[in-house]
Write a structure and sequence with these properties.
The protein is of the alpha/beta class. The chain contains 10 helices and 15 strands. The chain is globular.
Length: 324
């Protein structure tokens, strides 16, 4: 057993249910590694689980993303060694100073990438990668709309879409966030969400965009459909404003033979080869300067509740991390 500090959640609720406490972390078993957590990523899925949108078994330690070093390995583990720097996006219990995770989910971290950058890339970086390359594979010359363009996924997705040859339009909530979105490569930035479909139509000569990447959900869903070109694709990958209620699929027909997908990361990193391939692109772009990671806030582990509040209120830009 390893002594650690961990955030524990005993029931669904608001940020106040995130309580720091002493914990004992089990020794790694076969196919596992004990990990020192240098930084843990904060994501909307953590809020969905904490609040009860996604049912959980209680008590539990939140967080699935982080970066750090390997402290120990289980029997017959050879893929990583003690002292290796690694990052991960699918290791439960990452809101802690130490955790145990499956070796096949660990991503080697190259030299020159610091711990907070490494913790910021796995979930949001891999999400942005599969959105742009698989959910709707961007082709050179496409015009796409990305909501919440100054958020963690939005900034990364804008950069990746630009690398792939797209013209990017984003929506943001403030002028400050608009400046960040433009720095990431957005050709056009819309401040506010009220009339964005009409603005998108105006910016595309009336045709609309080939794809909308929508992590906002309930508040933008109808407008996202209205902003699509004929045979366009709506990629709904989150619901920061709330979950989208049931709707009539005939709307896809009347909108111009539209497509709708609701993907999740786990289905796009099914194998270790797929995980490492996507990660190699991300770290490669980071190394050559085409991809930048913005850390929008670093919080002590005991301030996890405040990090959730700031993320839910959209007071932040870029990636939020907890530093145990």
């Amino acid at each position: 057993m390893t002594r650690a500090t961990a955030i524990r959640v005993s029931q669904a609720g608001g940020p106040e249910v995130l309580v720091a406490s002493a914990a004992e972390i089990a020794d790694p078993g076969p196919g596992q590694a004990l990990l020192d957590v240098a930084a843990a990523g904060v994501n909307f899925i953590d809020i969905y689980r904490r609040s009860g949108v996604y049912p959980m078994s209680y008590p539990y330690t939140p967080g699935n993303e982080g970066a750090g070093r390997v402290l120990a390995v289980g029997p017959d583990v050879t893929a990583v060694a003690v002292g290796d720097r690694v990052a991960w996006s699918d290791v439960p219990g990452s809101y802690a100073s130490a955790t145990v995770g499956p070796v096949d989910r660990l991503i080697p971290v190259p030299d020159g990438v610091d711990d907070q950058q490494a913790a910021a890339l796995p979930l949001q970086g891999l999400t942005a990668h599969y959105l742009a390359t698989a959910s709707y594979p961007i082709a050179p010359g496409d015009t796409v709309l990305i909501h919440a363009g100054a958020g963690g996924v939005g900034l990364l997705l804008t950069q990746i879409a630009t690398i792939l040859g797209a013209r990017v339009i984003t929506t943001v909530s403030t002028d400050e966030k608009a400046a960040l979105s433009r720095e990431a490569g957005a050709a056009e930035v819309l401040v506010g969400y009220r009339d964005f479909p009409a603005q998108v139509r105006a910016l595309t000569g009336g045709t609309g965009v080939q794809a909308v990447y929508d992590g906002v959900g309930r508040d933008t869903f109808d407008g996202s459909l209205a902003a699509l070109a004929r045979r366009g694709s709506l990629v709904l990958f989150g619901g920061s404003s709330g979950q989208v209620p049931p709707f009539d699929p005939q709307r896809l027909n009347s909108g111009g033979s539209l497509s709708l997908t609701r993907p999740t990361l786990g289905d796009f990193v099914v194998t270790r080869a797929e995980l490492l391939g996507r990660a190699a692109d991300l770290f490669g772009w980071l190394a050559d300067g085409r991809l930048r990671v913005r850390i929008g806030g670093s919080y002590q582990l005991s301030d996890a509740g405040r990090a959730h509040e700031d993320l839910a209120a959209r007071r932040t830009t870029g990636k939020l991390v907890l530093v145990p």
